[in-house]
Amino acid sequence: MTTASKGLQFTFSIPTTIVFGAGALDGIGTHAKGLGFKRPLVVTDKIMSQSDGMKQIRAKLSEAGLECAVWDGIAAEPLDTTLTEGVQQYRAERCDGLIGFGGGSAMDTAKGVGVLAVAGEDDPGPYQRFGGKTVPGCVPVIAIPTTAGTGSEVTSVCVLTNLKNGHKLPIRHPSLLPKIAIVDPLLMLSMPPKVTAYTGIDALSHALECFTLVREHPFCDTLALQATKLIVENLPRAIKDGNDREARSNMALAAVMAGTAFEVGGLQFHAYAQALGAKYRGAHGLTCGIALRAGLRQILPTATGKLARMAWAFGIDTRGMSHEQAAAQAVDAATAFITEMGIPKIVDVLPTTTADIPMLKKETLETTGVPITPEMAEAVWQEIYR
Prior knowledge:
By secondary structure, the chain is α/β, with parallel strands linked by helices. 48% of the residues lie in helices and 9% in strands.
């Protein structure tokens, strides 16, 4: 590793307790009781509400002397109206804690409901980026992912589309960090191949967007690079055989590592993905893959050193290569991997053409949480449609 330690300054914190491993869900009752829950609301979708995992949650909570209410009204991609419905259910059921059970949408929705419950309000819009209001806090959340990708179980973010203005923007505050993340790879065995691919590419986006930032952060960089290697080695296996427990476990670990890395270190291409998600309701992992594939090519001149180091994760032997050669090969390998995992060209999967670039560029620049110049936005969007 070539971190420039001279004058290095950083902050790194992992406030979420991570309970990882096959069978980890068995401890849900103990963990919920430890947080003081008496009647938590389980936020999930209609499929997961009927799953064996849900039955296990109910049983283990009951063994701990706890009741729970279940709300299965989440949307595939969270909306402001979804959070409104969720907090109304939370109040009606007289709950005192939240359990997000499912993919990123379930966990994000649980966090958003927690904010509205503390705020005593129904509209999340004012708490999204640029909304003007400060997040007052969040009801304690236990996050239980059933996909390996979003990293929501270890992040302080809830991302949702606001139907009033059409923007896909986050609510972000340290209080949204789940108190406990129960990461049980056995819950992920039933993920269909397409969901496995999309969520896995989401995790890859988190890892590579964070790692290839020009700044150095030894903890984030190490987590992100190792997560990338785990994904490259295990995502194809998990797609091919959903019952491959080793691959599922490694993907679950990669998602947690990548989520932890970007929670602290940040992202750089997600604004493009979120613009596509807001305008076309494309699956988040799909739009992340489309954006990452283009973004990596655009940062070749400015992130050569990081991209050269990235080659290791893709199994490239860089001995005898210059940094420029290693970086170019790493980008070629990464973009090929994204395509091989099932991320098609944008025009083959979303109802859009190059005529939409000005609109999407405007959306990106208006909603980004990181500095993006108009020139960079134009270059990335042109690459996306190439």
